[in-house]
Amino acid sequence: MDCFICRKHKGQETAPPGGYIYEDEHWMVCHAPAKLGPLGTLFIESKRHFLDYAEMTSEESDSLGNVMKKIYSALRMHTGAERIYQVTLMEGVPHFHSWLVPRGKGASERGLKLLARDDSCDEKDAAELSGKLREAMIENFKIVDKIRGAQTDRPIISTSPPAS
């Protein structure tokens, strides 16, 4: 099977700006390429190749909500987003992935009009934001570990972007 997301996960495609923000046994989160959306546009990608929610395992669906909650919090904190839109289509790449698109308080467009804009951001800004989000995710999971009192479910979070 020739899948862009599978190749990207294997390092056979261009790395996302700033590298992956978060990774665990089921999910990888990264900033979208700068030309594909406004600053803060993220992809949540399944590690396993499957198409949609109906094909998720129970473990994948359970963990997705936890990752979404933490990345939404981090994205709001670092972008000031009033809303974060989630779009899951799988038309262009038939591998489960969701787009998260932040909408600031001052945005004139909302909903589908905002999503329909031909928007982009600066690659350097996207990489910088990825680093901030990565640190926020690390802190989020440290807090969870303290509450649990155990280190058994630690996510695999890269603390530095991949080498260029």
Question: What report would you give on this structure?
Answer:
36% of the residues lie in helices and 16% in strands. With 164 residues, the chain is α+β, with helices and mostly antiparallel strands. The chain has one domain: HIT family, subunit A (2-Layer Sandwich), CATH 3.30.428. A 5-stranded antiparallel beta sheet has the order 1-2-3-5-4. β1 and β2 form a beta hairpin. The longest helix has 26 residues. The radius of gyration is 15 Å and the shape is globular.
Structure summarized in a few sentences:
The chain has 164 residues and is an alpha+beta fold.
CATH domain class: Alpha Beta
Estimate the mean pLDDT confidence.
84
- List unreliable stretches of 5+ residues: 150-156, 159-164
CATH architecture: 2-Layer Sandwich
Question: How many domains comprise the coordinates?
Answer: 1
Q: How many helical elements?
A: 4
Instruction: Please tell me what the overall shape is.
Output: globular
Structural class: alpha+beta
Which sheet architecture does the biggest sheet show?
A: 5 strands, antiparallel
Helix content: 25-40%
Strand content: 15-25%
Number of strands: 5
Strand order of the largest sheet: 1-2-3-5-4
SSE order, one letter for each helix or strand: HEEEHEEHH
Radius of gyration, rounded? 15 Å
CATH-assigned homologous superfamily: HIT-like
Amino- and carboxy-terminal Cα gap:
27 Å
CATH topology: HIT family, subunit A
**What is the assembly state of the chains in this entry?**
single chain
